[in-house]
Every structure is written in C-alpha cells, then in structure tokens.
C-alpha cells in the first residue's frame, strides 16, 4: 500500500516520497526500511517519520535491542575469559569488551571489573554477522561518563521509552530533577540505571520513568509533582 | 534456554528493599497481583493474566483406548509450552527445565490430587474413554508462572464441556454440540498452586514477580542466607494437595505454616473468582452473547498497552491521575517556573543527556567531564 510520512505503516508498504527523494539525491534509510532492487519497502509496523532533508525511519514499539554502532548501552558482565569480558547487552548474543578498552588500562594495569558488574559502554562494532564489541573509552582514550556503574538499580523498559526520556523536549527529567537529586544512565538497549540517596527515592525515579511511557508532556509534569508529594509524605 | 543474567546491583537492591519491608512494585508482602480471566469462543479455552504474566489454556478431548491397568478411567494429559514469545531467554521448540518442572507440578496438582472424576469419562470399559488434553501456552512470563498456569488449567478444565455420547448396542454416537447439550467435566474440588518466595529465610512474599523469583534463590555478599521458592497447592476446602520447595533448604518450619495459612485464604479467593467468572460466562452464553478473546482488546488502541501495574512503583502511587485540565493546576506550574533549578539537563554525548548541577548546588554529582578522572 502507498503511504505518506507520518502514516501508520505495515511491512510491505512503500512510500513514493522516499523514491522520488532517492532520484534527486542521497537518502538515509533508518530502521524499518529496506531497499529491494529499486524500491524502498517498509519492514516494520509503526509510524513512518522523516527528518529534513532526506532521512526516513519507522518509529515502532520494540523491546528487543539490535546493536547499532555508536550507541551508549548498559550491559552486565557475564564472563571473564582471558583478555576479554563478555557483556550481556540484551542483544541476541553477548558483546565483547577488551580489558584494554578502559581508560589507562595496560597489559599490566588491568581494570577492576567483576562478573555481575554493570557497565555503561559505547557500541564500537555492530555488524550483522559478528559479535558486537563495546568499549569504555572515547576516541581520545578518556572514559568520559563510561565505565562501571556502582550500586543503584537497573531496570528494563522498551526502547521507545529510552528514546522518549532522552529527547531534549521531554519534560520528565526536567520535572524530577527539581524535586529530588538522583543519578541516571540510560542505555539505548532499553536498560536504565538509576541511583538516588535513598531506596525510596530510587524507586520513585523508576516509577516516574515507567509511568511516563504513555503520558503526554502535561501529564508527565503532573505525574512528577504527584510522585514528589507522595515521596514527601503529603499523600497517604 | 539461555542463561538469564542478573547483575549484582539488582540483587543487592532487591535484597535491601525487601529487608526494609518494601517491594519493588509497591505491594505488601502478602499482596498478589491483579487476576483476570477471559474466555475464548470455545468451551475450555481461557486466558488468565496475573499482573503481566499471561497464560493461554485450551482443553480438547478425543476418544481413545484406556490404559490397561485402569480400563474404566479416562485420561488426563497436561502439556506446557513456553516459546520465545514468553520471554527472550526461551528457545523455540525446546523443552527447558522450567517446562518440565511446570508440567510435573501441574500433573501433581490436577492428576494426583484426583480432582477430576476420571471414571465419568469412560464410554465403553476397556475400549473407549475420553482423553482430556490440557494445552498450556505461556504468552508472557513476568514471574509466578506456576500460579498463573495452574489457575489457567483449572479454569479451562472447569469451563470445558465435552460432547454427549449415547450407546445403542455396540455402536457409540457422539453428538455434536447442536444436537445435544454438552456435558461439563466433574470436578470434586478445585486445587490451585500458589507460589511464595522466601527471602533470607524468614520473609515470605506471595506472588513473586520475575525479578523477585530470580533474586530470592541467590545470596549476595551482604546476605549470606539464601531463600527459595515454595509452591503450595491447595483446594477451596483448605486441603493441601501439593508442596514443592526449590532453592535452599529451610531452617525454620514455621515459615511453611505461615505460607499454608495465607495460601488457604488466597485459594478460597481464587476459586471463588474462577467459579464466578465461569457462572457469568455460562449465563452470557445461554443468552447467545458471542464471547471470544477479542473482548480483551480495547478499542482504545493506544491505551491498550498502558500498564496499570508498573514494575517499579511507590506504594501510594496511583496510575489513574487526575487530568491536569483545571486552571489551578496550570497556575501551579506557572508558580513553579520562577523557582531556579538546581540541576540542568544538557545533551552530552550523542543520544545521551546528563544532569549537571549548576553552580552553588550540592556536590553529589561530578560537575564537568573535562576534569581529569583517574
């Protein structure tokens, strides 16, 4: 079926807008779109989106993470074997992490990472046929925000929710940051690490994030003040 | 089945909040999740959801030869299937330990407790009996599969009606549903399996969620003593049908007593719900109302995914918030705006935002990424 941008689309649909744009210049195809011979087909159910000038993708509800290069993810160290760590990032197979890809790591100075630790890392290699590889340093050899996350709590959510809360226009983090202090690391693989001063506050952050999934911006603000008042003990 | 991995921080967190008297989803220790039962268009098919755990059960029947040792009894067969649809760690078409465990538990609960009158399933002694087959398919696994599957099996068995049979001489006629009213299965009692998670050998949680199930059996550095999962099978007359403990050994027998006590009340509650929903369904069917699984789907398609039970929830949090369409609420927001924010969300690396404290705020977060962090 022929569809337009911002329509609800199903696998097998096609859009003429993409084809005409492709004749004029280069087009960037995001997730959910695939080129078959000379036509671009939709391969996922969702909403077709466009960003000017020529980027197209399908917004769909998804929980399973498919690695893609350059994304920040949260993983659990599953196994230490020789000079690599195996890290579970929620993809179909575990990612590898070399012990040298930490800041200041040398062959003698090994990083202290235990099995069961939570890592915030960047996806370096994500190809169809190979194991994904992650690193805990940037291209300058600095760790930045990456590395082992201590204490706190990790929970899973849909990939859409992570994108939603990381969207600069989303009022969620803006609203709760005024209410109580917390730390948060959101992995694009649908895992969010949170840490606050007390257990109750940590749970409150998780509650606010999960509750915001299907709320509009105004409702999110409302919900955050509600949670803050529960936290303060005003609502019994 | 791929091994599902839990990080140590999750384990520590769960252990700590539970020892402090809370649960991750804001329930009390002895509080269960929301139970929902809906029926399909045929007799004996139902979907039972316990919170986010969903199980589909379907009973079918066929005429077979009875077993040699029990020539006048029908056959009950229970089959459990868990596909990758339930949770990503399961593989398709492969039996896992969990499948076998679940199958065995349900067989113990429904076959060995003799809750079904198998003799009434006999048509011709030593020749023809009805064989009932309960197919249980796990649609979503969010913890406490045993309880959900057992309620599903019980409901579908109680809901099922087999075709009527008449014998004239040597020939046996099986009537279609149109010709003669079908016959319901005779159940002497209604047993239900309930799961309890035992934490640190003295805390008893009813209806554990997935993460609680995973965590309870494993100890951490802080908590040496580990717990386990206790399955209690009980019927509405408070008779014990099944007891199964997996995980660590128990040091204290009083915890079993406690579990059985709270199971008795819960079982009564569940059986009453099951009976009531079946009664309702029967009256609906007699009025020729079409009942099928499409009733579950709400027409409000965006909100159909809206979960009322969050995995992480404060005790007093209520998902049904008042809408902020009052003027008062808008005023409130305007009042808040002039308040200077202590923290600021700024985009840093691609796809990341971080909260950075503005000057003069408390110093619980590292302020800049440029500073050397050794």
UniProtKB/TrEMBL annotation, chain A:
Q: Where, subcellularly, is it found?
A: Cytoplasm; Nucleus, Nucleolus
GO terms under cellular component: cytoplasmic exosome (RNase complex); nuclear exosome (RNase complex); nucleolus
Family, per entry: Belongs to the RRP40 family.
Give the record's GO biological process terms: CUT catabolic process; exonucleolytic trimming to generate mature 3'-end of 5.8S rRNA from tricistronic rRNA transcript (SSU-rRNA, 5.8S rRNA, LSU-rRNA); nuclear polyadenylation-dependent rRNA catabolic process; poly(A)-dependent snoRNA 3'-end processing; regulation of gene expression; TRAMP-dependent tRNA surveillance pathway; U4 snRNA 3'-end processing
Q: Which UniProt keywords apply?
A: Cytoplasm, Exosome, Nucleus, RNA-binding, rRNA processing
K Homology domain boundaries: 152-198
Q: Can you say what this protein is called? A: Ribosomal RNA-processing protein 40
Q: Where is the signal peptide, in residue numbers?
A: none
Residue stretches making up the Exosome complex exonuclease Rrp40 N-terminal domain: 27-64
Superkingdom to which the source organism belongs: Eukaryota
TrEMBL record, chain B:
Q: Which GO terms describe its biological process?
A: exonucleolytic trimming to generate mature 3'-end of 5.8S rRNA from tricistronic rRNA transcript (SSU-rRNA, 5.8S rRNA, LSU-rRNA); nuclear mRNA surveillance; nuclear polyadenylation-dependent rRNA catabolic process; rRNA catabolic process; TRAMP-dependent tRNA surveillance pathway; U1 snRNA 3'-end processing; U4 snRNA 3'-end processing; U5 snRNA 3'-end processing
The record's section on PANTHER family has: EXOSOME COMPLEX COMPONENT RRP45, EXOSOME COMPLEX EXONUCLEASE RIBOSOMAL RNA PROCESSING PROTEIN
What protein name applies here? Exosome complex component RRP45
Q: Name one GO molecular function term.
A: mRNA 3'-UTR AU-rich region binding
Keyword field contains Cytoplasm: yes
Q: Domain of life here?
A: Eukaryota
Indicate yes or no for the key word Electron transport: no
What the entry lists under CDD domains is as follows: RNase_PH_RRP45 (cd11368)
- Give the Exoribonuclease phosphorolytic domain ranges: 31-163
Gene3D superfamilies named in the record: GHMP Kinase, N-terminal domain (3.30.230.70)
Gene Ontology CC: one annotated term: nuclear exosome (RNase complex)
Which keywords belong to this entry?
Answer: Cytoplasm, RNA-binding
């Amino acid at each position: 079926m022929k569809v337009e941008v911002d329509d609800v689309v199903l696998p097998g649909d096609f859009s003429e807008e993409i084809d005409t744009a492709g004749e004029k210049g280069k087009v960037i195809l995001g997730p959910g779109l695939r080129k078959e011979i000379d036509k671009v087909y939709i391969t996922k159910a969702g909403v077709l989106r466009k960003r000017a000038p020529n980027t197209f993708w399908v917004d769909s509800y998804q929980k399973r993470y498919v690695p893609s290069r350059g994304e920040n993810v949260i993983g659990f160290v599953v196994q230490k074997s020789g000079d690599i760590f195996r890290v579970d990032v929620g993809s179909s197979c575990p990612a590898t992490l070399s012990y040298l890809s930490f800041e200041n790591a040398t062959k003698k100075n090994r990083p202290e990472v235990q099995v069961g630790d939570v890592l915030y890392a960047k996806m370096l290699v994500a190809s169809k046929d190979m194991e994904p590889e992650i690193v805990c340093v940037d291209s300058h050899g600095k760790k930045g925000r990456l590395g082992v996350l201590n204490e706190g709590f990790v929970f899973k959510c849909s990939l859409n929710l992570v994108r939603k809360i990381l969207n600069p226009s989303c009022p969620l983090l803006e609203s709760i940051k005024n209410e109580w202090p917390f730390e948060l690391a959101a992995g694009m693989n649908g895992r969010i690490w949170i840490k606050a001063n007390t257990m109750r506050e940590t749970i409150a952050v998780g509650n606010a994030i999960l509750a915001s999934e299907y709320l509009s911006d105004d409702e999110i603000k409302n919900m955050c003040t509600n949670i803050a008042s529960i936290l303060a003990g005003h609502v019994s | 089945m791929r091994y599902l991995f839990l990080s140590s921080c999750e384990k520590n967190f769960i252990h700590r909040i539970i020892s402090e008297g809370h649960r991750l989803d804001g329930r009390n220790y002895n509080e269960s999740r929301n139970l929902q039962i809906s029926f399909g268009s045929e007799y004996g098919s139902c979907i039972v959801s316990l919170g986010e755990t969903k199980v589909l059960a379907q009973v079918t029947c066929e005429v077979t030869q009875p077993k040699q040792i029990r020539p006048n009894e029908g056959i009950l067969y229970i089959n459990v299937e868990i596909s990758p649809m339930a949770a990503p760690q399961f593989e398709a078409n492969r039996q896992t330990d969990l499948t076998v465990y679940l199958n065995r538990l349900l067989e113990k609960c429904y076959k060995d407790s003799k809750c079904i009158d198998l003799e009434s399933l006999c048509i011709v002694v030593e020749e023809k009996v009805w064989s009932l087959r309960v197919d249980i398919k796990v649609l979503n696994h969010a913890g406490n599969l045993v309880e959900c599957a057992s309620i599903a099996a019980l409901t579908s068995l109680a809901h099922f009606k087999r075709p009527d049979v008449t014998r004239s001489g040597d020939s046996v006629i099986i009537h279609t549903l149109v010709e003669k009213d079908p016959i319901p299965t005779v159940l002497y009692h209604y047993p239900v399996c309930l799961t309890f998670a035992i934490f640190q050998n003295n805390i008893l949680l009813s209806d554990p969620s997935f993460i609680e199930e995973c965590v309870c059996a494993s100890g951490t550095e802080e908590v040496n003593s580990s717990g386990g999962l206790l399955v209690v099978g009980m019927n509405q007359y408070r008779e014990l049908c099944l007891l199964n403990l997996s995980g660590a050994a128990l040091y204290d027998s009083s915890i079993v007593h406690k579990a059985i006590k709270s199971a008795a009340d819960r079982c009564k509650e569940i059986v009453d719900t099951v009976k009531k929903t079946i009664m309702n369904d029967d009256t609906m069917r007699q009025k020729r109302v079409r009942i099928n699984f499409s009733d579950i789907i709400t027409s409000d398609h965006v909100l159909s995914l809206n979960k009322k039970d969050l995995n992480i929830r404060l005790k007093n949090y209520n998902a049904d918030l008042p809408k902020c369409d009052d003027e008062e609420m808008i005023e409130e927001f305007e009042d808040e705006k002039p308040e200077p924010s202590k923290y600021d969300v700024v985009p840093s690396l691609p796809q990341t935002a971080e909260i950075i404290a503005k000057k003069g705020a408390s110093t619980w977060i590292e302020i800049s990424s440029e500073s050397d962090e050794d």
